[in-house]
Amino acid sequence: MLLRRNKKFHLRVLVAVYISLCLAISAPLLPVSATTLEQHKEAAEARKLLPIESNQIENWPPGPAIGAAAAILIEANTGVILYAKNIHEPQFPASTTKIMTCLLAIENSNLNDIVTFSSTAVNSISWDSSKIGIKAGQSLTMEQALYASMVHSANDVTNGIAEFVAGDLASFAEMMTRRAEELGAQNTNFMNSHGLFDEEHYSTAYDLAKIAIAYFRNEMLAKIGNTVRYNIMPSDNQPEEIFMRNRHRLINGEIPVDYKIIGGKTGFVNRSRQTLVTAAEKDGMRLVCVILRQESPDQFYDTALLFDYGFSNFQIVNVAANEKRYTIENASFFQTGNDIFGDSSPLLALNPDDYLVMPKSTDFRSLVADITYRTNIPSAIAEIIYTYNGAYLGTATIDFASDNRSTYEFDQNMPVAAPEPAVIEEDNVVFINVRQAFYFIVVIAALVIISVIIRAAIKNYHFNRRRKRYRKKPVRKSRRDRFKGYYL
After folding, report:
1. Is CATH 3.40.50.150 correct for 38-313?
2. What SS3 class is residue 13?
3. Cα(first)–Cα(last) distance of the chain, in Å?
4. Which residues are catalytic?
5. Peptide bond before 297: cis, by omega within 30 degrees of 0?
6. Which region, left, alpha or beta, applies to residue 332 given φ > 0 means left and ψ of -120 to 50 means alpha?
7. What is the pLDDT of residues 37-95, one digit of tens each?
8. β-strand partners of 387
9. In 3-state terms, what secondary structure has residue 433?
10. d(CA 460, CA 401)
């Protein structure tokens, strides 16, 4: 009985000592953590004073001041940058790295491929990082692996993807950097597939936006990146059921918005702070927003603020429907409103599907257009690059004959922003009349032939007259000469 009491007493003493030690250890740490968090918040407030490059454009809609160290808002289909803040400054991307990982995976594998995890894949990451707890020797389909990477941000799974695609982790990181360069990301270097901190693992807001544009063009990847919940059911190669939930607040509905979210990816390591990549769509515009180095939960609110700014202040404008300043002038066998053997067909035309993204406060006629004949588009003979006060707004191509109804010929040296541009009526479209051209050519040919015949006849006539004039007259013999032989 006494022994039991002593055991209870000793157990209480041990518990008390343990609690005391925990309090002693944690007591000095609490104020330090609070101070560190407060410092991060203060740093974020200070970053609101950093210059916003897009606000320096004359008459550009002013963008909001946000606490992110770097941010970009870009229209995915045209590449028009609506908002720019330190977009080329290298930052640590954290788990937004997985956008590149999944893009490479779907480009180099099939969804039903089996990814078997090695010991290196599951044990080379820190124990406290995000993972699903897959074990060496277990397997997932590539589709399951993609969902685990984007929805749960599983670092062990991205390592398995890397080994499956490239053979080893280092080779996959090299593939990531090369593919990023192909997409136009020139200031990016990847050292791993997951985004855990490495001094040499960095990217920029602009580069991540370029990578995200390519990612969201793939319908399957967009679907995966916009998934709120996903479960992996037990199988022979993986015996446990795994539940996953997306922590992106614009995707899971914690922050309601009035536009369509296409998808996104969160990220965090202590050195990067909060990072976020998101795509949204409204009124025909698909915008991609990248936030780097922000404090939680402001990365979500900054993203929502930038999307509101973009959809409220910018619009898409069809070029062929609005460009009326220059057209082919009527001449010779060109005739307005006539058909080719009864059917209309223009010679050159602006691509009817090309559009710009421009501020709603701006008039189309105030844009500047530069013509270039160096184009890689097979159907185009030239491209028109539109700008507004130096800011790129998009391009339109001039194509060969098609069913378009807007036909143009542009002069490279012609000023686009003329004070009083010549406006052409929409129905005044220029066509080549082949029948009339054929008749014209036949008439000219006939006139030439007749002219040659007449000239030959005249020349022959003059020649015959000359010949008669100089012909020798026969000499008549005298009577004496005729009878001369009789006197011999």
Report:
1. no
2. helix
3. 197
4. 95, 98, 153
5. yes
6. left
7. 899 999 999 999 999 999 999 999 999 999 999 999 999 999 999 999 999 999 999 99
8. 368, 392
9. coil
10. 50
